[in-house]
Structures are given as structure tokens and as C-alpha cells.
Design a protein that fits this description.
This protein is mainly beta and 365 residues long. It contains five helices and 17 strands. The protein binds calcium ion (2 copies). The site of one calcium ion (CA) has 8 residues, from strand 6.
Length: 365
């Protein structure tokens, strides 16, 4: 896999208020390219989470992560802001009771099982936010009510979002029947722009991708199994790359598994543009995204039978080494003109050396 073109410089940024979440550590990370040409063009909004600085246990509130229903959530009540108490936590990989050891995960990881599921979204586990949000021109970082802005103050809209993470089974020697977790580019509420399911099937770990690409039936999931029979004894890496293009039906989403491109598809934008529920609930505009949602939903078994898998409690998957980035990708020769190329990148995040290279990148076959 092509390495990410960045070194990491950590800076502190303030976080926007989020009325649904408690106050949390105001930390974000930004990386810079080593071969910077000028201050604006070389900045890339990128972060990596290894969890090694996290405390064990409760996720919510650590380094801008949000998990209102994760471990430590209060009991369910009528006034409680969450729907269930999920088996999501920061775990100690070296605990003597664990069956696994993955050196690349070091000591601490995000552990999730679907022992508990619900039909809710905003109480599930969300990663820290990127400094900028990503989406097409009319993408919304605000809640449908307009009261909550999930963006970090000062960010600007970018047209590319990507995330890469590793996951592994905590029971390498056997199947965990019914185990499944979905990861989605999101913003912090119910809105998602894509869907990648990781599941444990009898013949190994499986990755399933869902898009909503049929304008005539935009509520339908179109499922693709992008990888299967993956070895449970080792971690696997998934990368999702999203290019948001203005207008419906044209976003480009790539899914990589263990460094190989496995699927080229599209986003969920048509759900927000065309579907009656999508328009009603989200105002007819797709959400801007700036983080990943890790969800154990009662309605997420699209390709796999079953629902909650209580026997996976305390086990499930571990997730680690999450990288997230947003930047501006060149989408037209017009955008490359004059000095426009200086602020743009190719889909790998590389800056252009000159306008001609920028032009070439947008010449489709
Ligand atoms: Ca780790
Ligand atoms: Ca679009």
C-alpha cells in the first residue's frame, strides 16, 4: 500500500460544542508534509489513533472520542441520552485472560462486540473529529434541527475523506458466531455516508460494503462482499477513500482490504437526495463527515442472519491504528488553472508539482 505522505505534528485545536455529549479533551491532530511548498498548500488534515495514550475502559470523552452508550454509560432511563449499554471499551490487549496477541496493536485497542445492539446511532462509538469536514458543496455538518454543529470550529469543507484502520478477532482460534460491527464515515449523529461491515463467518473474517446507488430506489442497500475467508490469526486493514463530487449520483468510493483495491462504488448521497425518509429526516442534503462511527446495530445484519450475539460479550473485534484524513482533490481542469493546482492533491493525497500534473490527474479514461 502506498504510504501516507505525511509526518505528524501535533497541535491543539479547540472543539465545537456538542449538546449531546459531555465536555471532552480538546485535542485534535494535524500532520504536515515534509516537502511543504507553502504553508497553505502543504497542510493536510490528518490524524492517527493508536489508543496507547487512552485510559482503559470508558471511551467517551477521551481525545474527542464519543461513546454515549459504551462501557460506563448509565443505566437506561426515560431521560437517558442513549438506547443501550454497548460492549464497547478501551481494552488491555495484554490482560492475561485474553486469547490473542497482536504486536502491531501494542497494549491498548478499541474493543467492540455486538453482545448488545440497538436501532440507535448517536449513542454508538465515534472517533475523534478531523479538523475539517468533508463533503460536496451543500453537505451539512449541522444536525437537522440546526442546533448542533458537529464540525470543529474553523474548519473548511474538503471534497475528500479517507480512513484506514486495522481490526482483528479476539478469538483467533475459533469463529465467534454472529459477530459483526459496522464502520461508517459520519459526523456524530444518525447520518452516515457509507457502510463497511466486518463479520466473523464460518470460513473466516468477511468484509461487506453497502452503497445506495439506485436513484429509482435510493433506500435500498446494494451489498458487495469485498473480502472473505480472511485469516483470524492476524489483523487485517481496511481503507475507505471517498471523493465527494457536487451533485447526486457521482461520488466515488474505493474500498481497500490489506492494501488491495477490492471495490469501486459510490456513497449514500442518493439516499439523502432522493429517498423520502432521507429527505424528511436530513433536509435533503447529504451530511458532511469528519469521523468514523463504529456501530453495533440491531438492523445491520444485511448480509448476515442474526442480531445481537450475547456470547461475544467481552470478546468481539479489536480495532487499532485508525488514520483519518481530509483534503482537496482536483476534480476538473478548471480547478487546476492559474494557481489553483497549488492547493489540490491527487486521490493519494500527493501535491502536484505543476499545473500540467494537476490537469493530467483529472483526465479520465
Ligand atoms: Ca494500540
Ligand atoms: Ca455527489
Amino acid at each position: 500500500m502506498k504510504p501516507w505522505p505525511c509526518v505528524f505534528l501535533f497541535v491543539v485545536a479547540s472543539c465545537a460544542s456538542d449538546a449531546t455529549a459531555p465536555i471532552r479533551a480538546p485535542v485534535s491532530t494535524i500532520s504536515m508534509l515534509g516537502d511543504r511548498r507553502d504553508a497553505d498548500a502543504s497542510l493536510i488534515d490528518s490524524s492517527i489513533t493508536t489508543f496507547e495514550d487512552f485510559s482503559f475502559g470508558v471511551i467517551d470523552g477521551q481525545y474527542d472520542w464519543k461513546s454515549l452508550g459504551g462501557l460506563g454509560a448509565p443505566a437506561i432511563s426515560l431521560t437517558s441520552p442513549h438506547c443501550a449499554v454497548y460492549d464497547h471499551e478501551i481494552t488491555d490487549n495484554l490482560a492475561s485472560a485474553n486469547f490473542y496477541r497482536f504486536h502491531e496493536f501494542e497494549r491498548r485497542s478499541l474493543r467492540i462486540s455486538n453482545a448488545v445492539t440497538s436501532g440507535c446511532y448517536s449513542d454508538q462509538t465515534f472517533s475523534s473529529r478531523t479538523s475539517n469536514v468533508a463533503g460536496q458543496a451543500n453537505a451539512q455538518s449541522r444536525s437537522p434541527s440546526g442546533r448542533i454543529d458537529y464540525a470543529i470550529v474553523g474548519g473548511t469543507l474538503q471534497n475528500h475523506f479517507e480512513a484506514e484502520w486495522s481490526f482483528a478477532s479476539t478469538v483467533p482460534g475459533a469463529q465467534q458466531p454472529g459477530l459483526e460491527v459496522v464502520a461508517s464515515p459520519a459526523r456524530g449523529d444518525d447520518a452516515r455516508m457509507s457502510w463497511i461491515q466486518m463479520a466473523d463467518l464460518p470460513d473466516g473474517l468477511t468484509v461487506i460494503f453497502a452503497e445506495r446507488s439506485n436513484p429509482a430506489s435510493p433506500g435500498d442497500f446494494i451489498l458487495s462482499t469485498v473480502a472473505r475467508r480472511l485469516d483470524r490469526h492476524v489483523p487485517h486493514t481496511i481503507k475507505i477513500s471517498m471523493d465527494f463530487v457536487d451533485g447526486p449520483g457521482n461520488d466515488v468510493v474505493l474500498v481497500f482490504v490489506d492494501g488491495d483495491l477490492k471495490h469501486t462504488g459510490t456513497s449514500w448521497e442518493n439516499y439523502y437526495f432522493y429517498d423520502a425518509n432521507g429527505k424528511l429526516n436530513f433536509g435533503g442534503a447529504p451530511p458532511a463527515v469528519n469521523r468514523m462511527m463504529f456501530r453495533t446495530g440491531s438492523d445491520l445484519h444485511r448480509g448476515i442472519p442474526g442480531d445481537a450475539a450475547p456470547a461475544t460479550r467481552g470478546h468481539g473485534f479489536v480495532f487499532d491504528n485508525l488514520r483519518q484524513a481530509t483534503f482537496m482533490v482536483a476534480t476538473s481542469a478548471n480547478a487546476c488553472k492559474h494557481t489553483g493546482w497549488r492547493g489540490l492533491r491527487d486521490t493519494n493525497g500527493e501535491l502536484f508539482e505543476n499545473q500540467r500534473r494537476c490537469d493530467r490527474s483529472v483526465q479520465k479514461d
